[in-house]
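Morning!

This is the sequence you dropped in the shared folder:
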Amino acid sequence: MTAGALIDRSKWIFDLDGTLTRPQHDFDAIRAELGIPAGHPILEYLATLPESRALPLRRRLDAIEDALVEAAEPQPGCVPLLRQLAAQRADLGILTRNSRSNALRCLEILGVADLFDPRCVLGRSEAPPKPDPGGILTLLRRWRCGPDDAVMVGDFRFDLEAGRAAGVLTVHLDTAAAFPWPELADHRVRSLQDILARLPST
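The structure's back. Tokens below.
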């Protein structure tokens, strides 16, 4: 896929933890607390369990994430970038493996909830978890646009794989500048300010 220009896109989809917020989740610790073997994706592992075993673990996961969100801090450049995109009349969406209620609360804490249509904030109950592209495709249908008008921004392989599968432009945010999945990223940035710098000023 040929990398397109970010200024050509008016539909922006963001991951949440580690992308719009500073990384908070210690996934190894969460797996240990839930009794999930090391290295297994949490949601996918829970999906393999009988509902009688999975339900209390999902409730515990919700509680862990609800506690974490109260300490959420924005990534540097998060608020200016989102407000600049909104000023340019871009449509903004969230696609997260967290719960939707958690995501909405996080946007409130970051001070940017007013920039998002709540219907365009999708959690693990509203869309198949990334790397499945279903959530992106749902947002594209909601916006009545094709993939050529959209961007997926994230800090992890699942975000980029979902974007690739949906055919949208992918932006990999890696503050360490390691960029371990170059084949999945159309654009690679070290900060959200790097994205803001590529947009026209209003």
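Headline: The chain has a mean pLDDT of 94.

More detail when I'm at my desk.
O.
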